[in-house]
Amino acid sequence: MFLQPDAEVQARAAYIINTYKGLVKQGKEKFAADPFVIATAEVYGYRVVSEEDGPANLGKIPGVCNKLQVPCFKLAEMFDAEDWTLG
Predict the structure, then answer these.
(1) Among 2, 13, 18, 28, whose CB has the most other CB atoms within 10 angstroms?
(2) CA dist 61 → 21, 31, 80 (Å)
(3) Sign, CA torsion 50/54/55/58
């Protein structure tokens, strides 16, 4: 799913970029989607799915989500939460 970030998402993404400096690696700012994924989830009440570890690491998606109280799941956890099955 691709959404054009509106002004509110852009403002939240800017806040995330400026607050959680470790989330976006220096020199990769132009291609950094993580702050926009988190901001979109926060603004619209979505959940983030990430395979990164580190709910306490503010340089990783789960850590920033945890700090901002944005729900963040691993893929298998989302399957369980949605009661999905494969096969």
Answers:
(1) 13
(2) 12, 15, 20
(3) negative
Q: How far apart are CA 71 and CA 3, in angstroms?
A: 19
85: Cβ contacts below 8 Å, ≥ 6 apart: 79
Query: Averaged in consecutive runs of 10 residues, what is the pLDDT profile of the chain (87 residues)?
Result: 86 94 79 92 96 92 97 93 87
Contacts 24+ apart (CB under 8 A), 78-86: 78/47, 78/49
pLDDT at res. 30: 66
Say how many C-beta atoms besides its own lie within 10 A of residue 59's C-beta: 14
DSSP lists the bridge partners of residue 72 as 48
What span, in angstroms and rounded, lies between the C-alpha atoms of 87 and 79? 13
